[in-house]
Amino acid sequence: MPEAYDPEAPPPESVVSYTRDVSYYTLCGMKDMIKCTHKLYNLKVDMFDQLYLLKIIDYGELQRSYKKFNQFGNN
User: Fold this and answer.
1) What is the DSSP string of 3-71?
2) Nearest CA to 35 among 49, 22, 24?
3) pTM to 2 decimals?
4) Where are the domains of the chain?
5) Contact 53, 27 (CB under 8 A)
6) What is the DSSP letter of 74?
7) Mean pLDDT, residues 16-25
8) Cα 37 from Cα 67, distance rounded (Å)
9) Cβ neighbours, 10 Å, residue 42
10) Which of 18, 24, 33, 73 has its CA 20 to 30 A from that of 9?
11) What is the pLDDT of residue 18?
């Protein structure tokens, strides 16, 4: 394991929830919505997913981002 490994550190998912005051169940719902978006567009873009989990963009913006990205990739 790397030298900086801290066994007491929370997993990355909880870091996201603590940084933006997202409860556990809200975070689970957000992840489910991301899975729905992946299935709808048959595409996965981690950058958009992280922006959504950090509440920088809302779900509508997540959908629009995937739509624009999908259209750009198919042209």
Assistant:
1) TT--TTSPPHHHHHHHHTT--HHHHHHHHHHHHHHHHHHT---HHHHHHHHTTSS-HHHHHHHHHHHHH
2) 49
3) 0.72
4) 12-74
5) yes
6) H
7) 71
8) 10
9) 8
10) 33
11) 59
